[in-house]
Amino acid sequence: MSFDPKGASPMSRYLASWGRAPGTTGYLIASFIVSMFAISVLSGVFFAGLGMVILLLGLPLMSGSLLLAKGLGTAELAMLGWTGLPQVPTPVWPRPAAEAHWTARLLAPLRSGHHWSYLLHQLLINPIVSTVTFALTITWWATALGGLTYWFWQGFLPQPDVDPWAEWLRSQMPLLQGWTASAAEGAAYLVAGVVFGVTLPWVIGGLGRLRHAIAAAMLGRWPADDLAARAEAEAEARQSAVHAEDSAMRRLERDLHDGPQQRLVRLQLDLAATERRAAAGDTGQAVAYAREAQLQAKAALDELRALSRGVAPPLLADRGLVAALGALAEESPLPVSTDLDAMLDASVPPEVARAVYFVVAELLTNAAKHSRANQVKLTARIHWDEPARLRVAVTDDGRGGAGFTEGHGLAGLQERLHGLRGTLTVESPPGGPTRIDVIVPLPAGGRPAVPASLS
User: Using one digit for the tens of pLDDT, what is the confidence trace for 113-158?
Assistant: First the structure.
């Protein structure tokens, strides 16, 4: 459940607030119970640790109380979802390095501002606020329900001979003059029940929004968290890029050793044998060796050309990504239909174009080798909604069943894209079809101007 849509009528918003009232009421009551438990347990653990900090035993206790505060705060955010209000973004929690000593891991919460903020919220702010909101919630519900149903259970109550409350009501409200004490009291409770019942969803909703605002400030994400998350993502992307580049270089080294290098060694031996046969006057055998050397040279050249496509495709540098992807489609053993955005060359940076070219080349090769497909469709479009991103899709009508295998195939492509903060997703049910989506974010800078020839 979410906020009311903009432009809704007042009656629609009022009814929507009634729809959220039960969940918000449940949250306000449950949060009060949890806060009472939190203050009783957390205060004991934290202040015990604070008292023993000089003995060093207090530091683990304080750290444990901070972890407990984090757990209780996380539960508070989960219960806050009952209100139907927007979810509070969770903080970025510090993660000790993998090689950190166990004592550093144990005491890490003591250096975290979010842990202290959660502790302050659970020990001081939440108990006070939850007590007030709990009291108001019970008061409003009890008055609304009790006032509206007082006419029913009034007859089960003992009636005093003189009711000062009813006499006071008759003296203050001329309309009640001449009414019996029980009738005047029943009317007053009914009016109170109507007033409190009509205003109940507004009051309960306001209390829920108050708690939501406090939780967002104390338990939510800080502006510094976004910077830390971006820095961490950049660091992971750089590490993935380095790892992918290292893997690519090792693969190239292995391919050169197992392919062209062996053929060149064979070519050298064939040329030496040709020279010896020619010197001995055995021209027939010399011609045979020369023919074999020619075949080895051609095979080595073909393998070098194939490997060069994974190093530096000249077409990509000379004519751009659209032409390079089109060439890949034409060279594929399978029929490939293309739908390429004309703005690719003007909008995609060279490093992104290079990675996308290699990924598409590998995907088309995999489709030809393993999919048993009859045709493939290649789509590359730029989406300008924030954030701007390049989306490439390769779809085949093959047998399906494609997936990620650690260290091979699609997993390697996924790692290459991770270095650009991109993603690769696979939809390949058994029996097909297979669709592989590649999404790579583009640098900020706005949409380039459309050439006149394309407008």
Answer: 888 999 999 999 999 999 999 999 999 999 999 888 877 777 666 6
Q: Are residues 269 and 381 in the same domain?
A: no
What is the maximal distance between C-alpha atoms in the chain? 143
Instruction: Based on the fold, state whether residues 206 and 233 are members of the same structural domain.
Output: no
Do 189 and 56 share a structural domain? yes
- Counted residue by residue, the chain has a size of 455
Whether residues 104 and 151 fall in one domain? yes
- Which residue from 91, 80, 88 is spatially nearest to 129, judged by alpha carbons? 80
**Residue whose token pair is 């991770």:** 418
Tell me the two tokens of residue 363.
Answer: 């995907």
Note the pTM of the prediction, 2 decimals: 0.53
d(CA 61, CA 48): 7
Token pair recorded at residue 107: 């005491």
The boundaries of the domain holding residue 19 are 10-221
What residue type is 105 in one-letter code?
Answer: R
Number of domains in the chain: 3
Are 23 and 68 in a shared domain?
Answer: yes
Are 318 and 304 within one domain? no
Q: Which of 308, 300, 420, 425 is nearest to 363 (CA)?
A: 425
In terms of Cβ atoms closer than 10 Å to its own Cβ (0-12, 13-18, 19+), residue 439 is: middle
369 shares its domain with 299: no
DSSP strand pairing (389-396 vs 376-383): antiparallel
Instruction: Compute the half-sphere exposure of residue 80: CA atoms within 13 Å on the CB side of its CA.
Output: 26
Q: Is 434 within 8 Å of 426 (Cβ atoms)?
A: yes
